[in-house]
Amino acid sequence: MTGTAKAPQTAVRQRGAGAATRSETPAASDSRALGKAARSTVPRASHADFQPAPGRTDPVELLERQARTRVPELVPIRYGRMLASPFAFYRGGAAIMAEDLASSPRSGLQVQCCGDAHLSNFGVFASPDRRLVFDVNDFDETLPGPWEWDVKRLAASMLIAAQSNGFPRRDQRRAVLDSVSSYRKAMSSFARMGELEVWYSRFEVESVLAKYASQFKPRDVKRTQKELTKARTKDSHSALSRLTHVVNGEVRIVDQSPLIVPVDKLAHGAEREQIMTTLRRSLGLYRQSLPTERRALLNQFELADVARKVVGVGSVGLEAWIALHLGRVDNEPLFLQMKQAQPSVLEEYAGASKFKKHGERVVVGQRLMQASSDILLGWLRVDTDTEKQDDYYVRQLKDWKGSAELEQMDPESLAVYGQMCGWTLARAHARSGDRVAIAAYLGSSDTFDQAIAAFAQAYAEQNERDYRALDAAMRSGRIVAETGV
Questions:
Q1: Closest to 192 measured CA to CA, from 21, 2, 316, 443
Q2: Minimum mean pLDDT range among 138-152, 274-288, 313-327, 443-457
């Protein structure tokens, strides 16, 4: 969304708005006391501090470690995408920042963390009741952990994006402060809500735009409406026209190597059939993770073709497949994406997940944090011939999905977008953490906001140094990067 208006803090409380003020229960009083007490142990101003820890791991080495468990021929694409800009590097560097956050101050209050809450991991998509909602949309790294980690990753991403757009320093700082202030104020609002109110709260984009359109510049309203219209076209039907062609009377995924590689190009004859058999068995395992009624829906479709697909920036090199299914009526298309799930980058610092299957970890975390999740979201584990187990999560490839065009934003637009992200992250944390304690810790002043702005500035400088280190590694031949892919 673009424009100069303030992010509509109240409009997103469409369900449960207007509830009467409640008296505080003993449990809420205890939580409030817990949050305020945490200020004494970990002052809010202490979050401004960032210094690289002694013995900090070489960032290129961290990326090389991740590369060891990824598809070798795709790793150069990952490096190339990260080298596109400092912001692109930041997007792919969740593991680097996880190590840095591990030594930062912690309030001691836990939530279900996204683990990679940068501003490009928010966007619009369709809810099950076919409304366009704005929410967090990437959960590969989700894990219970300190809520501050997500806030700091979001704040630093706002600053780095503002720098990439060439904004003046004043506007860079404003983007960060507006994001964090929105998080703090939203958490205070959620602390006064009942449990069901929090659970039902969601950001319905169309309703907000209609209510507040008069506060935005006409050109920004027009552009936003155009983007939302475009998002509604992103579904399996549009994917069918873009990604497939007919071969000998059968629908097949088009070869777009190296980004989309059909199974027919990866293998032939018996080897191809073995891959297809494994994928059919895998999709059968995935079905078992779905509720009964969703299984009944999926049973109306037959697998037609599969292809390996390159996705994202930090995720490049992980096994990711798209599976084309066709329905019984008019060959209705359904594209599913199977994406490999490895241990969260937070696990080394926040503790191992209680879920042994990382696909399940991702799905449970997503359902905890999102107001509305894909109806076909599920997981599976595959036993390979090498006695290794690979975990995956599955969702629809496209379901009215849209993301902000950050490079087109002016300073006012980015500030509004940051407010939207801040509110959304607070709502996600409020569903799983002690929102009353977190709100009490944050308080009503801007002390925490100012501290995070200082942290973001220091971390943006570190990110720039790390980006240059990767660039130097490419120039020296230490790593191979394939740019422009």
A1: 21
A2: 274-288
